[in-house]
Design a protein that fits this description.
Elements: E1 2-7, H1 12-26, E2 34-39, E3 51-52, H2 53-61, H3 65-79, E4 90-91, H4 95-104, H5 112-125, H6 132-141, H7 146-154, H8 159-171, E5 179-182, E6 186-189, H9 194-208
Parallel strand pairs: 1-2
Antiparallel strand pairs: 1-5, 3-4, 5-6
């Protein structure tokens, strides 16, 4: 079954959703899935140079906004094995990260290892995932081709793929991420709990997978 996932690498709910989604798939070992990670920029106007995220959020939402937004996520992440370090995160531009995720679909290692590396680097290490050198280091980390990735970043390769993903998200009325689309027909919005993922995936399999 094909599964498309709209996500942004600086979205904490996306990281949480990815972990829960993978846990759900682990409970369905006989299910063959073809997962495609799709681009969705939560903050497309983010500058190339990183900014202090606490300052940005509190300027926009008021004093205490940062703490209220992150305290619950910290606990939820810990339950899924994620050590969120929100004290290290920055406001960064993710367009190039999305281009590399699109490129990774054509590579032997695929998209998932790079997506996981991006989430981990940003949320647990405070890495600037808008920085080309950081992105290339993450390609190295997952055993990818650093030279080929460098060529991608040096030009505009896969920029159209990112824009196409975002256009399709608008067409499908994806208003937030993560968003999981099963068999191009069933949407699961948000970082649902594992049992919900399992239940909806099983129903989609029953409805849309040809029986042998």
């Amino acid at each position: 079954m094909r599964i498309d996932i709209w996500s942004d690498v600086v979205c904490p709910w996306c990281y949480l959703g990815e972990r829960r989604f993978r846990a759900a798939l682990a409970q369905l070992p006989d299910l063959e899935v073809d997962v495609h990670w799709r681009a969705y920029e939560l903050d497309p106007r983010a500058p190339r140079e990183p900014q202090d995220l606490v300052e940005v959020l509190e300027r926009k939402y008021g004093p205490g906004a940062y703490a209220s937004m992150t305290s619950r996520l910290t606990a939820l992440g810990a339950a899924e094995g994620i050590d969120y370090r929100f004290d290290l995160t920055q406001r960064v531009n993710t367009f190039d990260a999305h281009r590399l995720v699109a490129w990774a679909a054509s590579q032997a290692h695929g998209q998932e290892p790079l997506v996981e590396a991006l989430f981990s680097a940003y949320f647990t290490e405070g890495a600037n995932v808008g920085d080309p050198d950081t992105l290339l280091d993450l390609v190295d980390r997952v055993g990818g081709d650093r030279v080929a990735a460098g060529v991608v970043l040096a030009g505009d390769a896969y920029a159209a793929a990112v824009r196409d993903d975002e256009a399709l998200a608008r067409e499908l009325e994806v208003s937030g991420v993560p968003a999981f689309v099963l068999a191009e027909r069933v949407m699961i919005p948000g970082a649902q709990d594992v049992d919900t993922f399992v239940r909806v995936i099983e129903r989609a399999v029953e409805r849309f997978t040809p029986q042998s």
